[in-house]
Amino acid sequence: MQGSIVIIEDNPQHAADLVHLLKKFYPLLNIRAVADSYATALEAIENHKPDLVFLDIELNGSKTGIDVLKFYHNLNLNVIYTSRLDKGVQALNLGAKYYLTKPFTEDDFIEAIRAWEKRRNNTVTIETKYIYFPELNKPIFRIQISEIIALKGNKDYSILYSSNAKLNNITVSKRLSILEDDFNKSGYSNIIRTSKSYLINSDYIEKAEKQFNLVVMSNQLQVPVSFTQAREKIKNIFFHK
Asked: Can you give the pTM of this predicted structure?
């Protein structure tokens, strides 16, 4: 597995431990920079455009890893945060999809890398795939799966929310249950049925309530999560247990 890494960690020993583990288990991952403050973190990310960032919450100076995440909030920055779990809830809400709770073991480290690798591979595959929708009273159109944020059921129809402005807020003449079957048959694991009324693309989850009964999507759509299986899937996305 290849890729570029930036480590943001104020404790030299912890940074050295991460460097050691990366070289031991993933020698093809190229460590581009090690930063210990907000300013050096932003500089490293801007200069190297890393595939993955290891981010500590507590940094040198007045600003923290949370501030780094806030700066890159709307960008697709892959982050494994390294901190105590109680320090990381806000980080998860700001888009850090993987975590290493200090102190962590080699197995914990490998599991976090595998979770990132799995999501990266799935994203690469899904970006080139399309699904076809019959728009109400209009011709059938196609949309990339990666552009779907959510679908809201409305009796015999569904409302499409998309990151593609031209295909956003469109009424599709298909019931949500049929769309769910279409996704399941095609193996699109990123699409989750959260309740009787919603299908969501997990890549666009921006925030989650503490009990995972509600998620907020990237377009600020608030989606209830009433199905237990969906709640567990979303928990795994955030915590990768």
From this structure: 0.53
Two tokens at 174?
């298909």
Residue 75, phi-psi category: left (phi > 0), alpha (psi -120 to 50), beta (remainder): beta
Q: Is the pLDDT of residue 31 over 50?
A: yes
Statement to judge: residues 93 and 159 lie in one domain: no
Assess whether the previous peptide bond of 103 is cis (omega < 30° from 0). yes
Residue 41 sits in a domain whose CATH number is: 3.40.50.2300
Distance CA 212, CA 144 (A): 27
Tell me phi and psi for residue 81, to 5 degrees: -90, 145
pLDDT band at 170 (very low <50, low <70, confident <90, very high): very high
Q: State which amino acid sits at residue 100.
A: L
Nearest by Cα to 174 from 162, 183, 164: 183
Q: Which domain range does residue 88 map to? A: 3-126
Q: Rounded CA gap, 20 and 29, in Å?
A: 12
Handedness of CA 3, 6, 11, 16 (dihedral sign): positive
State the pLDDT at residue 241: 43
Mean of pLDDT values over 23-32 = 92
Q: How far apart are CA 111 and CA 81, in angstroms?
A: 13
pLDDT at 128: 53
pLDDT of residue 225: 96
